[in-house]
């Protein structure tokens, strides 16, 4: 990199984008990296407050910030991630399709621990739409020793999964079992079904049926088996999730021989949540809050299951950090702290 007085810079090749700011009019690159300075550019550069420019030199072992950013973006990107062109040394990564953002938190930390490397991302498990921003990456100096980028690439390659990945949600067949003698007998109207159906269909899956059961273990089990026979790939059992003696949903699920992952989750609302598996079919026991709260544990767990991820207990216990919903008058999830 060579520092040259602007008045003597005609013919020099710019090493970086140069931003022009005119309040209320423009803020953006006036001259791009690689631009060859012309005589008529001199007054413009001076008006931008530039007394000197930085031009290419050929110091061995150094690479430009744009190349460094491109290589970092390539190293961290998995399926469903698109990189734009470098702008002023920074590359933005966006979602190629709708889905759930998966990040390697250890990978992000390891890369940012390298001097002069920057990788900033959204939170893990953030639901995204095609075109949404996921991350930005760059290096701090205009020129950086290539050894640093080689080390970053080597670090990224050591992780089993890409550091940044967008996993699409699978289209599953979902069966709903609504429990409770008050609904089963018709004394009150079912409120669970419409809420669950709207969320499942909003995630791209289909509800193949909803059945009703009173507080009878064998009837609940029979309803679950009927949905499985009809090809259900996910079962939602709503109601009967408290510790009251009459609430037998957890017992019904456990006594079917299901693998119980958790009964209880460190999330509010949603503490009495249950997750189990019958073979490869996830069964969720949903507490009453799912019926009346805008966002609950169901919104944090179900999309991950819909990507095909098989959740273990540790994944659920980690939800405690960020697991408190503030119950805002106007819900802005996922643009809030819940689930983060």
Describe the structure.
By secondary structure, this protein is α+β, with helices and mostly antiparallel strands. It has 3 domains: 2-55, Molybdopterin biosynthesis moea protein, domain 2 (Alpha-Beta Complex), CATH 3.90.105; 62-167, Aldehyde Oxidoreductase, domain 3 (Alpha-Beta Complex), CATH 3.90.1170; 173-319, Molybdenum Cofactor Biosythetic Enzyme, Chain A, CATH 3.40.980. Helices cover 27% and strands 27% of the residues. It has 11 helices and 19 strands. The protein has helices at residues 41-47, 65-76, 105-112, 146-157, 181-184, 192-202, 217-229, 249-254, 289-292, 297-306, 313-317, and strands at residues 2-5, 18-22, 26-31, 52-55, 62-64, 81-83, 91-95, 99-103, 117-121, 127-128, 133-139, 143-145, 164-167, 173-179, 206-213, 234-238, 259-263, 274-278, 281-286. Strands 15-14-16-19-18-17 form a 6-stranded mixed β-sheet, with helices on both faces. The chain has a 4-stranded antiparallel β-sheet with strand order 6-7-11-9. A hairpin with a 7-residue loop joins strand 6 and strand 7. The two termini are 42 Å apart. 38% of the residues are buried. The model has no long low-confidence stretch (mean pLDDT 92).
């Amino acid at each position: 990199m060579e520092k040259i007085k602007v008045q003597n810079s005609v013919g020099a090749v710019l090493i970086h984008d140069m931003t022009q700011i005119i309040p209320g009019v423009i803020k953006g690159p006036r001259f791009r990296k690689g631009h060859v300075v012309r005589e008529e550019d001199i007054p413009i550069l001076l008006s931008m407050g530039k007394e000197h420019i930085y031009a290419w030199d050929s110091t061995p072992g150094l690479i430009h910030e744009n190349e460094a950013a491109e290589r970092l973006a390539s190293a961290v990107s998995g399926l469903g991630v698109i990189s734009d062109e470098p702008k002023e040394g920074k590359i933005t990564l966006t979602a190629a399709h709708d889905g759930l953002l998966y990040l390697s938190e250890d990978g992000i930390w390891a890369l940012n621990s390298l001097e002069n490397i920057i990788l900033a991302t959204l939170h893990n498990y953030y639901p995204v739409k095609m075109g949404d921003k996921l991350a930005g990456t760059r290096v701090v100096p205009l020129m950086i020793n290539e050894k640093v980028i080689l080390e970053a690439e080597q670090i990224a390659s050591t992780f089993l999964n890409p550091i940044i990945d967008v996993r699409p949600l699978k289209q599953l067949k979902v069966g709903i079992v609504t429990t409770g003698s008050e609904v089963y007998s018709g004394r009150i109207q079912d409120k669970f079904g419409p809420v669950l159906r709207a969320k499942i269909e909003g995630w791209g899956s289909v509800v193949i049926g909803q059945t009703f059961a009173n507080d009878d273990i064998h009837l609940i089990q029979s309803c679950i088996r009927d949905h499985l026979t009809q090809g259900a790939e996910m079962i939602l059992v709503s109601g009967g999730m408290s510790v009251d003696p009459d609430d037998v949903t957890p017992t019904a699920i456990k006594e079917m021989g299901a693998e119980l992952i958790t009964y209880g989750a460190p999330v509010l609302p949603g503490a009495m949540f249950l997750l189990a598996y019958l073979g490869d079919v996830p069964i969720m026991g949903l507490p009453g809050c799912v019926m009346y709260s805008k966002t609950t544990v169901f919104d944090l767990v179900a999309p991950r299951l819909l990507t095909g991820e098989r959740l273990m207990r540790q994944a659920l216990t980690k939800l405690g950090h960020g697991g408190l919903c503030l119950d805002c008058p106007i819900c802005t999830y996922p643009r809030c702290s819940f689930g983060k």
